[in-house]
């Protein structure tokens, strides 16, 4: 199952021009600032925004090709779209909402309602079927919206900032559940977000959009290490580690450990901005709680800053001034000491 | 408290005397006629009058005609409102202006226009009579038509406003879930604009109930056939003033009920 799309469409403020291919089982995050065209891209794939030119194929089936005069309407595309603000039908009960897609496909009411009930159990809301959407919390509403879409068994799942409207505490729990549902989903998955951490934590591949154009595409590690522009570097150019925290010490999945201040125990993400990574010629005896030795594999000069890729345990990217590089006499292949203060590590529950 | 606090009450602006006098006169202008109607009502014989065949016939016909007009307005007006709200086509604004014209047009002019179109020598009237055998002027169907002509614009503009203000992404969501356009309309759009549908239908019905000018011009004044309540009131004023007053009172009660029923829509903001 694959999605191949070249999307050219007119959005009010700019022209959307994106080419992408997403494989089955792959989770691709579309990242970019507000107004970059992320939502428009999803709407175009869903058939809600007509293409001016280009082509969208899913599993070899052409969904849209203006040149060939093909345009499958939204209701005939095997897609599911989850909206940022849920868009549950306010006049229908929670169960009727989940059953909506099944009923639209001609399933008998009783059967559809039974199936909807099973989906509500799967998203952890077995008792809420008779309630009206207005009485649900944000997290509950988005669970229902997810169930409503998954119940129709789409081949292409489009998620438009599904967590943006949730408050911080709800978001953590919802993200964990969403990841589980996404893992068991067999089709193509496309997640739009403006939160870099969310994108890097969940996606196999990132697509970064700005002004309707694709700036860069690659794995999170790839994009972090080789941001192709200042903008991308600022957006996603952070060090992201996954590990298990216990008493302020995070044992990293890819080797090494970090000491962070006030980390909650359990599976976590640790984020270290390259600017906060200090480099030393000799082992420092100062305050940094995290000190280890690494080797510079790459130095990327970007105007007034140099990004230094370092191999070690863990590997990390540092961002220093050209003057610092001169003072250190740092060159590719050199060994160098790396220091990160415990207070500079941001920890998020995974 | 250390800080100076503002007065809790918002200071009332004091009104200039001419404003007070003119505003009072304006209010009295609305109140006195109603008072006149209420004070002159023969309360003791009111029930008796209400039961008289003359009044009952007009009442029955008025209900039949106004409810039929509302039903027709719903069937034809909702699609029209949907087209104005959702489609762009050449001449839309002109067409829209024409369909709401009866709201400002003197009803008697509407009646004349209907006669010229559907009358015996009208644009379509002759053809309707000869080929289909349908005679509209001076029939109950004609009265219903006149009322629909005058009242439907109220439904159209109310429903159109409702459709314009609804979040169309609900329709997008329904379509991505596999609902056809027809299913979206019935299961999402119309339920979501239900308050506007109800308000529009009630307004339309109230207008149809009170219709006089177009009805008497196009449908005439035949008791039991085209003589609706407003027509009966007008005629009874000479022959049977008590019946006229009682009929007026019924119409007033209906208007008040509509006003109270729709108060959230009109008075809720104040």
The chain pair with the largest interface is: A-B, 24 and 19 residues
What's the rounded overall pLDDT mean of chain B?
89
Distance N to C terminus of chain A = 28 Å
Radius of gyration of chain A: 23 Å
Looking at the structure, the CATH topology of the domain at 48-108 and 139-264 in chain B is MetI-like fold
Q: What shape does the CA trace of chain A take?
A: globular
Percent helix of chain A:
25-40%
Q: What is the CATH level 1 assignment of the domain at 48-108 and 139-264 in chain B?
A: Mainly Alpha
Instruction: State which percent range the strand residues of chain A make up.
Output: 35-45%
Mean pLDDT of chain A: 90
CATH class annotation of the largest domain in chain A:
Alpha Beta
Q: Please report the total strand number of chain B as a whole number.
A: 0
The first-to-last residue Cα distance of chain B is 34 Å
Q: Can you say what the CATH homologous superfamily of the largest domain in chain A is? A: P-loop containing nucleotide triphosphate hydrolases
Briefly note the structural class of the backbone of chain A.
alpha+beta
Contiguous uncertain segments of 5+ residues of chain A: none
